[in-house]
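Worked example 4.2. Below are the chains of a multi-component assembly; read each line carefully before continuing.
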Amino acid sequence: MLQHGPLLERLLAGDFICQVTDEDAFRHLSNEQTQQDINHYLRPLNRRLVGNDDNSVFFLGYFDLNKDAREQLSSQFTLTVQSLLPLLEWLQLVQETLGRDSALTAGDTIKLQEFVLRTEDNQSLRQRLNQLASDRFFNSQSEQLDNQVKLIFRRLKEHGYLLQPHHDRQYYVVTGKIDYLIDVIRFIRDEEQLPVDDTPSQEALL
Amino acid sequence: MAPTDTGIASNLFNIGAERLALLGKHHKALMQGYLDGFIDETAFSEGALKKLIAARILWRPDEQQPLALRPLLSELIASMVADENRRQINADVAEKLEQIRNRVQAYRDAQYKGDYSVAELQLQRLTEHVHDLSGQFEEAIDSLWHRLNSDFGFVASLDDKIRENERAQKQLRRLLDGLDLLDFNELIELAEGNNHLRKLLVSQLQHQLSSHHSSLLEVQKRLVELLAKFRQQQARSMLITNMAAFLRQHPKYQPADYPNRSELPTLFNQAAAIVPKAAIALDKASERQVLAELVRALPRYQPIALDDTQSASFSMALIDEEIAARQQALKTDVENFYLRVIDKGGKLSALEYLQQQALAWDSEIWLYQIIAEYQALPQDEKQMFAILRDEAPASSMNQLLLIRDISLQLQAA
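Applying the procedure described above to all two chains together yields the following structure tokens:
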């Protein structure tokens, strides 16, 4: 267990561990024996290792769902639901602004400067960004595009969706927490049978 | 026989060499024609155009149409520059097989007649056909790998990539069908009793084709994987778009209370953070040594022994003046910084300014003075400036925010 000290600390602090955030740790976590060891260690803290649907990202959940745990989960869930729309809009905005042909996935790199430059010259993107920045989730008070973008990216970094490999360089890597977000959306869609399609219609397939 | 043969050959040689030279002579205009899809006739003289048409390099597909490159030439260029948008794959094996059969027959006939020079020529042609057949697969496989490794980057949209991938898979199936047409029992029969033929048709060709076959299977596997990835990306994009649209239309939408279900979905089992804290343990004798060293390493308070100054008032006044002068200079520089911010209108970083102006102030003192100056401004003037701190926690354990830089900006009134 000694060798996993730093990893345990990160997990306990609420970090999501994926291939992008910590490749070594992620490899360890993918090992079933290590999972058991970690769960055994975490048992007295009422924590256990949880993975998303395809185990591309790991985080800690409760072992025993007592009253306190349920309360904490409820408030966490409320936050997650509130963050859905701003996050989805951000994903769309990045995809459109950078002219990408697919949605962002773990490992993709975003250069802040490129994003700013492309938004600057486009009135409609500018407006959407403005609206997004003032959303409660990002909560920007600034009118300046540069500050708005910086704040948005900083907030996403704080929430673990982005990783900034070098503190003084303005480029970001998308982490596996995005996969988690997509899984959450898919789960809600399936559970509630929302009219939200993710397969192209038959015509498009032909 | 022999002299006419060389006559034809040398005639062929001359025409071929001349026409190849034509390609080289007009290479830029022809390549432009490849890219544009038609030839700019003004780029050539009339004579040159006639020659190019006669050489079957250019043609006019229709009377109304401008001149264009012949398809074979376009194909050659596409293959040379690996332009996957226009590269063709030739999966026709039956025709090649037929030619091989005929050549083998002609070769055997010539040998039977004892005409060894003709037999030699036929064998030469046969070798070319066999190499063509193998080269045809090699070219196709090269093209497929090239497309695969570039993730079908030569088309822009995901939908196009999916279509291109499906097209590649169809080509691949045709190539595999073509390989199936090759019946080695037949080739063995064709080569019977002749060492040259056996080597060419059986050992060499079989070896090459079996390696092509395994290459094709590998490409097929990868194409299928990539298509699955494309489809997944497509599904993800659609999910994002449609879910965002749904949430926008239903701003009050609230999903069920999953956290309080008896069967909690694991996705929502996200525990609160625990930040482990630690302090020095004084009860462990073995660690005393380390602790003692830590304590010793702490910076100690050292009272500065001031000399008795007899003429204190005089020297103190001097030092005071010096300090005051420095203080005043710092104030002036900071004021200049504020003036620059007003002039510039945009955001200005304090440290960058310090560096640009090559001012000698310590960066920390500089930042302090800028903050002090800002705090000293009257309330209404304060509102004119936006002061932005670039700060970060000292470490993950220490929430103390350290200021790295300050940016000042004129606020629109």
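Take a moment to check your reading of the output against the notes. Chain A has a mean pLDDT of 87. Chain A is about 55% helix and 10% strand.
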